[in-house]
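Data availability excerpt. The first of two example chains:
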Amino acid sequence: MTNAIFPSKANDRLLMIFFIIVVLAGPIILAPFGAGYPDLLQRFAIFGIFAIGFNILFGLTGYLSFGHAAFLGVGSYSAVWMLKLLSMNVIPAIILGVVISGLFALVIGYVSLRRSGIYFSILTLAFAQMSYNLAYSVFTPITNGETGLQILLDDPRVLDGGTKPGELPLTNLFGIPMNATQKVEFLGMTLQFNFGFYFCAVILILAFYLSLRIFRSPFGLMLRAVKTNQNRLNYTGVNTRPYTLAAFVISGMYAGLAGSLLASMDPLAGAERMQWTASGEVVLMVILGGAGTLLGPVLGAGFIKYFENIFSKINDNVLHSWFAFMPDGLENVMVTLVHPFVGKGWHLTLGLLFMAIVIFLPGGLMEGFNRIWRKITSKRETATSDTSSDAASTPAE
């Protein structure tokens, strides 16, 4: 379901319709896999936005940033400060998070983009680690250090008129709490339709649409040209720095949007969101799903978050329930064999899977889907041509 499947602009509408249906039906689709609860669905949507933004930089220009988590953290801190000072309405918090992250990305990008390749990657990593250490120890009056920034009872919140004594307020959208949830029984499953998830889902859809327009625009075409051969563009007199800087800032604003959404769902911001491991995680998401594709980053984000939150919870009791149909001795053997790859060993399984995809599907999971799609369509075309040739060779009676 990427550009290879929908190669023409006329089919972009079909891609958007497909994406909207899948995202909005998330609670129903993911419920059988144990991932239909609101907190995880929100993380799927938020980190999907994070990965989409990173893909605009890495997938289109080829510039690999190892410091994008800095913008995620800046967006979170900015949003929490807005929740503390102005209102628990999430709209001002999100706007401030996106704006501050964009300005921060403009400064870092202006310096980092003076270099390319591994030197650019190291520069972004250095800036991210400096940001993490500043947030952790130097700027403690602003970030609250290792404890993290959170809302308090005595925060002014000038538009809300303060807080009722002994009661922390909830983040909301014009009075609708983010944790408002409606439970529905469906085919023996309890589905939870959470307002916070659908708020994040709508923003994810808008972020995906903007990414689609960037991919299809002349600006996106120039970014692809930068990735193909930036030196040749420079030799022809084209100044590529404004384009790469714009892509870097847009990508940073996407990360700030994701960070502000994290703070809007759970009003807490900590320095750990700015660590290099968080930057590496979004790199894995994009590569795993398919760098330079439209749906790949969202798929990769969901895949990794599923492993982190569901696959990592599989313990020996669950394994015994899986293999309970086997004789006792064989059941214990199977549990012993599978145990290192689940639960706390989920990183091992993810690492092996990532290695297999990089080796056999360099284009990510979306390359695998594209191969399957081409085989299906080619079989249909072959069957149609065979039917046509048979009909043509049959003599008329």
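And the second chain:
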Amino acid sequence: MTDTGSRLPHAPGPGCPAHAGAVRLGGLEYQQTPAQLYRTLRREHGAVAPVLLDGDIPAWLVLGYAEVAYVTGHDELFARDSRRWNQWENIPADWPLLPFVGYQPSVLFTEGEEHRRRAGVITEALEGVDQFQLSRDCRQLADRLIASFAGSGRAELMSMYAHALPMRAAVQMCGMPHTGEATVQLVEDLRISLDAAEGDDPVAAYTRVGERIRQLVEEKRERPGPDVTSRMLLHPAGLTDEEVVQDLISVIAAAQQPTANWICNTLRLLLTDERFAVSVSGGRLSVGEALNEVLWLETPTQNFIGRWAVRDTQLGGRLIRAGDCLVLGLAAANTDPQIWPDSFAGAESSAHLSFSSGEHRCPYPAPLLADVIARTAVETLLERLPDLVLAVEPEQLTWRPSVWMRGLHSLPVEFTPVVR
């Protein structure tokens, strides 16, 4: 493990942290080889690197495993309320990262006792989800999706399966119909908010997400049911409707896009890595190993923004000023050579940071529910289409050029048509 405070701080330059050597987060390196970029940043800057966000807004990227764990474990130094940011005067109203950092009355930005109250409501609402029933529901959803393309012998799994299944499972858990135009639009807006492509408007998309969730909360306030939304509304903590809206957005967003990428990244590993080739057909143990290895090496959320320094402090040999923004480099931390000196992450270990850590980590039992959805999706597909193979060469698969999410543009496959 690296020592977060043992090295002497680098001398800050004018406009620190945007001093000489700051690297823009984005570009072609992020599209295909972010791991190489992380290695370069670590070699040139150490465990904490000066970076530039969209519009050349300065921030720090925390690359080290120990440093990420330190930041997430010390809320008194690195807090979640983004109103502390010392760059707000430089942020335009249409800044594409506003859905991530613009303060909302959401559990994501609360601190201390208020965070524990809000997170407790989410935890208890999610604990009401029967994991065995969720697995059965996901299997039924998977069967329906597979049936829609099984007879053709070809499919594009990202859009037709990996993206669709967790979407339907997430909205169903929250009490929405898993089909219909309103649901499809909600999920598309969530995608734009989290992983905008060229020409997308993430700020407008996030606004539409809020409007649809407010409608759901109004419906459940009048007619509660056996779902996550109703349990949040009926919880004795007495959250307001707006608090429930904001926290539901966080729950649904976390359940949908990252889980979709987890499924697709795992399928890619199973279909391209010879270590899994012998047992990919119905190989349940291999599926479990692949799911965990993906969390280490191709984690669905590769960077998370962020934390804001409460006061001047040091981290990884850097002088961090009060109000500076820190981006949690989850993917870089998971492959930190300080914890994997041989550049190999063992699939048997679950000490990755893919669900973050500390008080603001993904609340229990959300990681377990995501695992149920992802595992059921992968296993059901391999059972129904046992001779599944890539329809292109592995090197033709391309990653979305996102700084934040790690997911493929598409995953085209071929198989023997199944006629029912």
